[in-house]
């Protein structure tokens, strides 16, 4: 196991949702597993004034609510010994100078520092600027790393503007752009599936693959995030980040090694090879929709326009689907279909790869119905699994075929699941960039979706709707190239149904 250096983890927005729901529980779980460095100090920063004891009580409450009576008291005691709090009031110009004095002069804070921006994206530049102005980002006596959450900008231009503000005080290796989706074990398993097995590599190209579908669907609505979602929408929120990352992992060439830069080089090559979408072709390559009222799990739920803080005439998309082509030697002509939606029939994430039909249909006279294709499906959530669909003969005197599914779950009995943030936090402390986004990767992803965003921004009069609890708006079938192509709604054999969606 790689040796982890002592460090100070400073996280801004210590009282926010991200800290309460993800960061604090993830760090505590690492404490329970004794994976945190012995000399790791955690400094929470927020605008509210707290005494340290009050802060510790709040953290204890968060963890007891999560773990209940089963909480590891010894681990909680060790964890609380690491915790400190520092207030950064909004209009206190001297707060960062006091923070600099604390971190530089107090020996209990190790000189290596991670700054985690668990705050609104609009606040990143200001905090980084203030840290830089008081010298807290200089690597004089230890390393300095800054973690920022997505979204990285609002479009290509804003991403470049944000980057320029960060570069005033930071070098690229100091910046960790976190996409928690890449921390999921099953997403990482795509790389293992691709590069630890030779079995499918000869078939992993345009000679044998018909198309690839990448889906992330949610039964949840916008919840309490309407203020953010109104300015983002499904295309920015999910496709530009998570789904394009999955596409890159599925389509990338084998890297020279598993070193961070080699991995990221190959992902960037894929994103740069995606065929640009012209403004005239947006409607042939992208489809959007917005959920109306409907029924989820037997409960009637409101439509998007009825959600709190949503404009009554909003055309923000809660469903987005795209057809993309990767114009390189391996993937030329193979469509990649990406879709995401809220208030859908099921909550799931999966990569489904459909193979072409055999060159000659030898069973056409004995089979009833059309030929059924082979599929390979990688379930990400909630079913983290690998499934392969093949055709076999039905027992009996006649030559009839049916589809069987070869299923393999990744997890054995007793193997524990981990939150994506746990591994990513350790990676930051270790200085491993493998699962973090480089700036050219971010820019390439924005270039893919920018033309669609611009056209949709001009079309504010109408948006297709779909009832909550369905599989999305009608009409998305127009993205497919042939009538025998359809959305795969399930990983099970009956999930491949022809539907007018």
Structure description:
The chain is of the alpha/beta class and 501 residues long. Helices cover 32% and strands 21% of the residues. The chain has 12 helices and 18 strands. Helix 1 (17-32) packs across helix 3 (73-82), helix 6 (156-167) packs antiparallel against helix 12 and helix 8 (226-251) crosses helix 12 (439-458). The protein is globular and about 85 Å long.
In brief, what are we looking at here?
It contains 12 helices and 18 strands.
Number of strands: 18
The fraction of residues assigned to DSSP E strands is: 15-25%
- Low-confidence spans: pLDDT under 50, at least 5 residues? 496-501
Helix/strand class = alpha/beta
Terminal Cα span:
49 Å
Strand and helix order? EHEHHEHEHEHEHEHHHEEEEEEEEEHEHE
Mean pLDDT level: 88
Number of helices, counting only DSSP H or I runs of 4 residues or more = 12
Strand order of the largest sheet: 16-15-14-13-7-12-11-8-18
Largest sheet entry = 9 strands, mixed
Give me the Rg, rounded.
25 Å
**Shape, please?**
globular
Describe the protein's topology.
Layout: E1 7-12, H1 17-32, E2 40-46, H2 52-67, H3 73-82, E3 83-87, H4 95-105, E4 113-117, H5 124-133, E5 144-149, H6 156-167, E6 175-178, H7 185-195, E7 209-217, H8 226-251, H9 260-273, H10 282-285, E8 286-292, E9 294-296, E10 299-301, E11 319-325, E12 335-341, E13 348-355, E14 375-381, E15 385-393, E16 401-409, H11 420-430, E17 436-437, H12 439-458, E18 465-467
Parallel strand pairs: 1-2, 1-4, 2-3, 4-5, 5-6, 7-12, 8-18
Antiparallel strand pairs: 6-17, 7-13, 8-11, 9-10, 11-12, 13-14, 14-15, 15-16
Helix pairs in contact: 1-2, 1-3, 6-12, 8-9, 8-12, 9-12
């Amino acid at each position: 196991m790689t040796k982890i250096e002592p460090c100070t983890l400073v996280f801004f927005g210590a009282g926010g949702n991200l800290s309460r729901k993800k960061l604090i529980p993830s760090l505590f779980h690492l404490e329970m597993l004794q994976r945190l460095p012995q000399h790791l100090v955690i400094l929470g920063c927020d605008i509210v004034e707290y005494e340290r004891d009050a802060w510790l009580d709040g953290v204890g409450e968060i963890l007891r609510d999560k773990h209940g009576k089963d909480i590891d008291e010894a681990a909680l005691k060790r964890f609380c010994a690491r915790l400190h709090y520092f207030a950064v009031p909004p209009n206190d110009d001297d707060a960062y100078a006091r923070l600099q004095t604390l971190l530089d002069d107090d020996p209990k804070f190790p000189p290596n520092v991670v700054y985690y921006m668990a705050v609104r994206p609009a606040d990143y530049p200001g905090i980084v600027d203030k840290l830089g102005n008081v010298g807290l980002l200089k690597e004089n006596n230890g390393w300095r790393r800054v973690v920022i959450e997505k979204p990285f900008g609002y479009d290509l231009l804003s991403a470049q503007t944000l980057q320029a503000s960060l570069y005033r005080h930071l070098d690229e290796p100091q910046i960790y752009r976190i996409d928690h989706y890449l921390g999921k074990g099953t997403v990482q398993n795509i790389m293992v599936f691709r590069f630890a097995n030779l079995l499918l590599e000869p078939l992993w190209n345009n000679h044998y693959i018909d198309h690839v579908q990448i889906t992330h669907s949610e039964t949840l609505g916008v919840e309490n995030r309407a203020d953010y979602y109104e300015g983002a929408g499904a295309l920015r929120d999910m496709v530009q980040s998570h789904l394009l990352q999955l596409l890159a992992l599925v389509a990338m060439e084998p890297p020279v090694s598993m070193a961070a830069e080699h991995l990221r080089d190959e992902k960037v090559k894929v994103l740069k090879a995606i065929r640009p979408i012209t403004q005239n072709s947006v409607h042939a390559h992208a489809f959007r929709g917005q959920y109306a009222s409907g029924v989820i799990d037997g409960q009637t739920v409101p439509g998007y326009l009825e959600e709190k803080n949503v404009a009554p005439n909003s055309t923000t998309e809660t469903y987005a689907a795209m057809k993309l082509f990767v114009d390189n030697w391996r993937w030329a002509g193979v469509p990649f279909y990406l879709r995401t939606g809220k208030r859908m029939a099921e909550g799931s994430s999966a990569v489904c790869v459909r193979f072409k039909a055999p060159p000659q249909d030898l069973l056409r006279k004995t089979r009833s119905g059309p030929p059924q294709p082979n599929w390979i499906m990688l379930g990400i959530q909630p079913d983290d699994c690998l499934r392969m669909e093949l055709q076999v003969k039905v027992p009996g005197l006649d030559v009839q075929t049916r589809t069987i599914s070869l299923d393999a779950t990744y997890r054995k009995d007793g193997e524990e699941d981990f939150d994506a943030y746990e591994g990513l936090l350790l990676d930051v402390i270790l200085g491993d960039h493998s699962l973090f986004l480089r700036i050219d990767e971010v820019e390439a992803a924005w270039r893919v979706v920018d033309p669609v965003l611009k056209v949709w921004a001009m079309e504010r009069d109408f948006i297709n709707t779909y009832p909550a609890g369905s599989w999305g708006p009608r009409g998305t079938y127009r993205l497919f190239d042939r009538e025998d192509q359809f959305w795969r709604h399930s990983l099970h054999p009956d999930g491949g149904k022809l539907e007018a969606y």
